[in-house]
Amino acid sequence: MKHILPIVLFFSLQYIHAQVFDVEAIKISGDDDKRINLVILSEGYQASELAQFKTDATNFVTEMFNQSPFKEYANYFNVYIIKVPSNESGADHPGTATNVTEPASPIRNVDTYFNATYDSFGNHRLLYYEIDGYSSNNTQAKIMNVLATNFPTYDQALILVNSLEYGGSGGLFPMAYKGSWGSRVIIHELGHSLFNLKDEYYPGDILAAEAINMTQETNPSSVRWKNWISSNGVGVYQYTCVTGNCADWYKPHQNCIMESIDKTFCSVCKEGMIEKIHSMVSPIDSYTPVSNSINNPTFPADFQLDLIHPIPNTLESTWTLNTAEFAVNVDAITISETNLTSGINTLTVAVTDATPFLKVDNHDAFHVYTVTWSIDNSALGIEDITSEVNNFNISIYPNPSNSLVTIDIENSLNTDLKVDFISLEGKKVKTVTISNYEPQQIDISYLSQGIYIVNFYANNVLIASKKVVKN
C-alpha cells in the first residue's frame, strides 16, 4: 500500500519549492514495493546535527523492533531516514497551553523546517507541526512535498524532533521528541496512524468510535474481540470517566501501550496490527518458475517459494496438484513425469499465517495468498508453464450466529469462491458461490446447533477452511 498523492494535491505541491535531501536506509528487508516502508524525517536538527539524527532514528528503530508484534514481523518492514536540516535546533515553546500554569517551560521560538511546536491546541505536551490544525495546513503540504520529492513510495512517515522535553502527537504524520520515552511515544502514535488503533484512555467524544480496540458493545460473546476474552487479561472494560460520553465506551485491556506508553500492545491490538500487515504485504516475496521463464523444461520440474518469514516462522503452506493435496509446509517441491496427466495440469500453493497472535476461529477476517501454475504436459515433456498470484481477504460474520452469516471476499484476480458448509460428521449441508466484492448473506437458521467447517475453493482448489458456530 504505497501512498500516491491526489492529482490536485500533486499539482498544488509544484508551487512549493521541491528540495532534494539526503535519504539513507537504516533497515532493509527487501524490495520497497514488497515491504512496508517507514520514513523518518528530521526536525529541529541543524546540518551539523544530522549525524546525531541518524543515531537517534536508529535507536528508535532498534527499540521498535524489540516490541511485539514489530519484533516478529521485522522482515516485513524497510526503514529510511530523510535528513532535513533546520536553521536552528529544537522546537517552539510559545507558552500558550491552557492545561498548565504558563510558563511551564522556557518560552522560545526557533527556526525549524516543519515548525514543530509544543503547547499545540492548548496542550502543554502536545508537540505538533504548528500551533493548531488551521495553521498546520501549509506545513502538512510541506511534509508531503518533501516525501513526494525524496521518497514517494512511503507507507508511513513520522517526524523525530531534536528536543529532550517530553512531547508528541499522532495524526497523518506522527511526531515525537527524541528523549528517553520518545521511542515509546512514536510506537504509540504509529498504533493510531498506521494501524487505526484508538487510545485506551478516553480520547474525547470527537475521536470516540467503533474500532479494533474500542466499542460500545458490552456483551462478551458479541464484542469484536470475543476470541480473546479471559485470555492475556482481555475483557470488556469501561473507559475511566473524565469527561463527555466516556461511560458509553469500552476497551479490551487495562494495561496496553495505547493507554500508557510504559506498557506493551495487548493481544487485541497485536491481532489488529498483524491483520493490517497482512493486508499491506504478501508473505510471498517471489516464486519460481514464473510464466515463460523456462524453455523446454524437463523432468524433474522444481517449484519454489521465497517467503517473508515471521520470526519465528509461522507461515503454513498447502500444495495441491490437480485438486489433490501434494505437500504441506514446505517452500519447494519437485514434480516428476509420473505426477502429471497428459494436457493441462494445475499446481496451486496456498499460504496462510498460523501465528498465535491471531485467533481466526470465530473471527471476522483472514488472509490467504496463492500461486497457481498451469503446466502443459505432453508425450514430449512439459511444453509450457504459466503462473499467476492471488491475494484473498475473506470475512465471515457474525460468528457465532443463529440465523444469517455474511461472507465477503476480496481478491486481486476477481476470482469467485465456492463455499461448502460441512458438518462435523463430514456431511455437506450447504454450498454457495461468492463473487468478488459482492457480500452475500447466507441463511443457516435451519441447521442444527453446533460447529461447521466452511471450506473455500478457488477454481476447485481448497485454499482455506474456517470454523463457524451455529447457535
Automatic annotation (TrEMBL):
Pfam families: Peptidase_M64, Por_Secre_tail. InterPro entries: MetalloPept_cat_dom_sf, Peptidase_M64_IgA, Secre_tail. It comes from Confluentibacter flavum. This is Peptidase M64. Keywords: Signal. The keyword Ligase does not apply. GO terms for molecular function: metallopeptidase activity. Residues 396-469 form the Secretion system C-terminal sorting domain. It comes from the Bacteria.
